[in-house]
Specification:
Blueprint lengths: L1 E3 L1 H14 L4 H16 L10 H9 L10 E6 L2 E5 L5 H19 L1 E10 L5 H9 L3 E9 L19 E6 L8 E6 L5 H10 L8 E2 L5 E2 L6 H4 L11 E2 L4 H18 L16 E9 L7 H16 L15 H13 L1 E3 L1 H14 L3 H8 L2
Parallel strand pairs: 3-4
Antiparallel strand pairs: 1-12, 2-3, 4-11, 5-6, 5-11, 6-7, 8-9, 8-10
Helix pairs in contact: 1-2, 1-12, 2-4, 3-11
The chain binds nicotinamide-adenine-dinucleotide (NAD).
Length: 366
């Protein structure tokens, strides 16, 4: 493992993005998003995505410098087209417009279709929290073969379709932020395990015959978007059996279908990119109840839940958002751990773009 301070890591990523054609604002937004994912402990959606992004730029499946294109504004409904732009930047800008409209309307339904990978969806929940709003996000993933098997199935029919629900905090209680894949594990976490040479827990993966497997290489061809990889593709399993499977299906029908980006069913285009479509509800809670009442309820409810005596004294009860806060504090202090395979892949991606390896190492501060 290599430890890199967040600001240095961000500068490396900015260098790659700018070399890949992004303007300074976009490079800053995307790099900040990726590094914050690492800081929050979600290495799956952090800087390790850069080699793939740079490949997809080369293939014309990811377009730099896109703004969200408004395709509809109808009362409190806003619909955007992402034109395969960096999701981190396109959705940030779409959220800004939706949050502004929500101040006026109290409730907004916003969709973004056909953006390239939106990254860590919790980032948009945090954007909403910063504006004092409550938000719900349903996302599907298209343009590539599916990764996740339905409950009782033996091959993949979905991607890892994430859901995020965000609630502002109070002076005492930090925000509650649920941000989860509907698979037992996000694909990027299988990539991290593969790069570290680690096995995964039982029941998280099935192989190409539909049999349980702990070996992350069953997902290798998906991770590297390369059907020529030795292992025939297996699948991830849904979280919570049929319940997670039901949520994944609704990510297709809400995030995919209602946004007009459509679902992963095979009649729809699969060019080999990572397209995200998102449906977002934003609610101004002050239209529903007095803010002090809401804050009291949040504090009292979270205190009540956390007061449950832990089954294991070393593992107290947490709420959604706590693991990310704990990781953020540690990694801002100690630096971000990057495994050597991932780091080499990032450096190689920079060199392939024409950057100097020694300059990148110098920027990284290691
Ligand atoms: N863009 C995409 O296409 C895409 C697809 C899938 C996932 N993702 C992203 O991948 C990231 C990782 O997803 P994941 O499902 O692996 O995350 P995860 O399993 O690590 O965490 C899921 C949620 O559970 C909460 N949590 C974790 N441990 C907890 C505990 N002990 N008690 C209470 N709450 C706890 C976390 O705070 C988080 O809100 C997310 O940021 C998600 O948005 C993105």
């Amino acid at each position: 493992m290599i430890l890199i301070q967040s600001e240095n890591l961000k500068n490396v990523v900015v260098a790659l993005l700018e070399k890949g054609g992004s303007n300074a604002e976009e490079a800053d937004t995307v790099a900040s998003h990726l590094v914050r994912s690492n800081l929050c402990g979600h290495d799956s959606h952090g800087v390790g995505m850069m080699p793939l992004y740079m490949n997809k730029l080369g293939e014309g499946l990811l377009n730099p410098n896109q703004k969200p294109e408004k395709v509809k504004e109808d009362g409190s409904i806003l619909m955007f087209e992402g034109n395969r732009g960096y999701g981190q930047s396109v959705v940030k800008k779409a959220m800004e417009q939706a949050l502004e409209l929500c101040k006026e309307k109290g409730l907004v339904l916003m969709t973004v279709r056909n953006s390239y990978h939106m990254g860590r969806i919790g980032t948009y929940g945090e954007q909403s929290i910063a504006a004092g709003m409550v938000s719900l996000h349903f996302v599907n993933v298209t343009d590539h073969p599916p990764l996740v098997a339905p409950f009782r199935g033996s091959d993949a029919r979905f991607a890892t379709n994430p859901i995020c629900i965000a609630m502002p905090g109070t002076a005492k209680q930090p925000p509650v932020l649920l941000d989860m894949a509907t698979s037992r594990i996000a694909l990027g976490k299988v990539r991290v395990a593969l790069n570290k040479g680690e096995n995964l827990p039982e029941d998280w993966l099935i192989d190409h015959r539909g049999q349980p497997s702990r070996d992350p290489s069953v997902m290798e061809s998906h991770i590297y978007h390369d059907s020529g990889k030795e292992n025939p593709p297996g699948a991830l399993t849904p979280v919570g059996d049929y319940k997670g499977y039901g949520l994944a299906l609704f990510c297709e029908l809400l995030g995919g279908m209602l946004s007009g980006g459509f679902t992963i069913q095979p009649e729809n285009e699969r060019k080999g990119g990572i397209t995200n479509n998102m449906l977002t509800f934003i609610v101004d809670p002050s239209r529903l109840l007095e803010i002090p009442t809401m804050q009291h309820e949040i504090e009292a409810m979270v205190d009540y839940v956390k007061a449950s005596p832990p089954a294991d004294p070393d593992n107290p009860v947490l709420i959604a958002g706590d693991p990310e806060r704990i990781s953020l504090e540690e990694r801002e202090r100690d630096g971000i751990p990057i495994d050597e395979n991932t780091w080499e892949q990032i450096l190689d991606a920079g060199v392939n773009l024409g950057l100097n390896r020694d300059d990148l190492l110098k920027t990284s501060g290691i």
